[in-house]
Each structure stands twice: as C-alpha cells, then as structure tokens.
Amino acid sequence: MRLAVTGASGKTGWRIVDEARLRGHQVVPILRPNSQLPDGLVADGLPLKRLNLADQNALVAALNGCDALLIATGARPSIDLAGPLKVDALAIRDQITACRRAGVKRVVLVSSLCSGRLFHPLNLFGLILLWKRLGEQWLEASGLSWTIVRPGGLKEAEEQLEREGIRFSGPNQQESSSIPRRLVAQVCLDALELPAAIGRILEITSGEDVPKQTLADWLIENPTSAI
Fold first, then answer.
1. In a domain? residue 226
2. How many CB atoms within 10 Å of residue 178?
3. In this model, does residue 9 exceed pLDDT 70?
4. Which residues contact 164 (CB under 8 A, 6 or more apart)?
5. Domain that holds residue 182
6. Is 100 exposed, middle or buried (0-12, 13-18, 19+ CB in 10 A)?
7. Residue 54 located in a structural domain
8. Which residues of 130-168 are buried (b: 16+ CB within 10 A; e: fewer)?
9. pLDDT in the model for residue 227
10. Model confidence over 178-225: pLDDT tens digits?
C-alpha cells in the first residue's frame, strides 16, 4: 500500500515510517516545515512532505494517491497551553477533511491511554486528554474507516522487544503502565492490515510478564467492545 504518515518526524512517527517500509509499503512522510529529522528518518532517504496541517490544499496534494493515513501527530509540552487544542483536536479535524477530499478512507490514529479523562495529571498541560478525546470523536463521526490506538506511557527502548508481550484491551480499561514506541508502531501497522480493527479503540501496554498475543488473535477473542 501507499501510506501517508503525519507526525513523521516524531519519536513514534518515524518508527511507523520505518515499520511500514519493513513491511514493503510505500511511505509518504508528512511533517511540519521546521521539524528536525531524527536519525532514523534521515537514514531512510525518503522524499519528505513538509507542510502545515492547516494548509488544506497542500495536505490534500500530499494525500492524493494514498491508500491510508496513519496519524502520529501530538502536542509536545510547551508554554503554549493551546497547543493540545491545536494539535490533538483541530489538526485531527483538518486531517479528516483532507482525507475526504483526497479519497483516503482508511485512518489509524495514535492517541493516548486515559483519553477523555478530566482528572488526570496530564491535563495540567492544556487539558490534553480532553482535546485528544475530541479529536477521536471527530474521527469516529467522520464516516472514514478508522482505528484508534491508545498506548500507555511511551518508552524509547529498542532492545529485547521480543521479551515484551502486548496487553490489548478495549476503551477505558487500562489506566497505567507503558510500552515501547516500536511496539506501538507495529500495532498501528497490524491494525491497518486487519479489517477486524476497523471501528475499534485499542488500548495497549506491554511487559515481560504479559503473555504473547497478536492483535489478530485478540480481535478474534474480542469481536466487539463498548465505547
């Protein structure tokens, strides 16, 4: 498939790009005009699409011909408390609109565990979890074929990932724990390739004490989940 990845310069985004290429997909990395490239993305040597997500014409042009969009954009801590509103809600709406215009029907969104929760320490940063949930809701109501992936705390570790089992659940069932970003990227690609993942919110954490299970197997055992 030809896949677009927004937030491609981010710590999770470039790993999604990398995993997609390892699986033989053609990738269109989309990133902000002034984003610095991580070493992992520089090494790929891919042609990059630098644009403002609010620039509809530029975003539609980047998405044209793509089979799916993986959204890995996310607000970063800063003094701008409106950042989460802009990035985790309004920019999601802009990407949904662009997908409709470009004919991209399949979308996987990387969100966060505890999305929508009011009383949470993360909300000290511009009510980020509330804006993430609004972005999710707009995607759910978009008419697109969507999957929302809510990872726990994100880890940079790349070593010994084979020891980690992934704990899958439906929405609002996990509250803590963590997961390496590389495993998040792999789950996003798995979800993209599994029709049973469409219309699902997937919460994921991992640990060496978690039994190994694939997303495909978990979806068979859990065919529906209440939102």
1. no
2. 14
3. yes
4. 179, 180, 183, 206, 207, 208, 210
5. 2-221
6. middle
7. yes
8. bbbbbbbbbbeebebebbbbbbbebbeeeeeeeebbbbb
9. 44
10. 999 999 999 999 999 999 999 999 999 999 999 999 999 999 999 975
